[in-house]
């Protein structure tokens, strides 16, 4: 009998701890601590990711998992918005020239194509546009307008198939080929279908799904003719899909009998098999992109329109999506507090603020967070609201606020001490840094201001270089020599802004704007790796739940908080953030955990 070494070219190792690298996949080892045989195996799974910033379904999707596009869609009404996905979150791209939903998406992020769809007042669009990664250019129309259409291929060799038109709507068997300039009619599908998905390339494509009763069928295209192929496990209308003709996946959809579907099915070029991986949120109207082993699906109708994004991976790692989760409530609900901005998720500080409604006034109470619960500690000396903070739980700093808007206090983990006043007293300012090197950013005096002051552990120094955009309701994160100023309000005029500026210890430089402009949110992290969350938008106000992540250049969407609020406290990092209080004197605490990846170690047993 052959040995394991002879078959696999490697021996069974004895290890006290499990390997943690994907390169160890397939290796069997004996864990001497648990007295078990183990291995790292590959598996397929869906995980949640950051939502679209413009909530919609039936957008056109194209590209790969780490560089994809969702364009147009139905909110309702129809949308012209384009968003780009980088594998973590969505950022804003150039708007479509023709507002529409239910169109086909083809190609890559920097060489994309959208065709057909449903325009306002035009149920069956012929419009075609090309995307270069920045903007859209209108091209020659389809020969036959239709919506709920499938597409595959590239920008210079595209394929449009099926769809519906007419009144009442009638499914079509048409297919057309695109050469980078114009469309040419090709041979018809064997079966007319709409609400389908296409995969593959122009000369080796697949048409899948559609409405009942033929929505479980697929057809292969060889560049000339369509041939009937394998059938899905059930009718799937409005499904998503991606891949090539010999290796595709489709997922979700809607079936008249069971309704919303979460199923995933694999295609090998001739037959379909059901995958053990199911969508976390089933539905129809995805903007799909990627391959059969690495896909993304943005937006969905389930049965309401939501901006949910889900990723599919076949990997020897288990991916857990980033998310917010409830933490321990504050003992005394409040908003407009000072917080140790550079504290951590397991060691945070909340000082002063305002309760209400009803409005009993400003409080002087202080609480510390240990990662699970808040404990009351010594009160601070000067109660205030709409101030700011810096430092850590054992070396904290609060400054500004109402009514004593230039006062500064230091915290040593037990007691508070009054130190040097600010040069410009203000409220609704941003703050960050540590106790011996703090930073005050913008705010409101009798008008909005861009004033910047630095703290050295005893006194404040005004930097003559103010923010480029004066504002209040701004949030700061980072350190004194590498800080971010995020969002705010430029009243007058009364308008929330998404402006972001970076500080190098001397001057401010404008950087990428928030996807959603707002003020008085929470912030955590560093100048090159930060998150900004919740807050509100003026005029309104409109309370926001959105979270966005910053990579040192641009903002992308991230998982939303559960309870939107403004003027809350924040602390932590971009992968372990904390948000507490806010709103109208709330006591809720939420903890953010970034996406994690771990190898899929399995214990081997006899069966």
What does the secondary structure layout of this molecule look like, with pairings?
Blueprint: H1 4-8, E1 13-15, E2 28-31, E3 36-40, E4 43-49, E5 60-64, E6 67-71, E7 82-85, E8 90-92, E9 104-108, E10 111-115, E11 128-131, E12 136-139, E13 150-153, E14 158-161, E15 164-165, E16 170-171, E17 175-178, E18 183-185, E19 197-201, E20 204-208, E21 217-221, E22 226-231, E23 240-244, E24 247-251, E25 254-255, E26 259-260, E27 264-267, E28 272-274, E29 287-290, E30 294-301, E31 305-315, E32 317-320, E33 323-326, E34 338-339, E35 348-351, E36 366-369, E37 374-377, E38 388-391, E39 396-399, E40 408-411, E41 416-418, E42 430-434, E43 437-444, E44 448-455, E45 460-463, E46 475-479, E47 482-489, E48 496-503, E49 508-511, E50 522-525, E51 530-533, E52 536-537, E53 542-543, E54 547-550, E55 555-558, E56 569-572, E57 576-580, E58 589-593, E59 596-599, E60 601-603
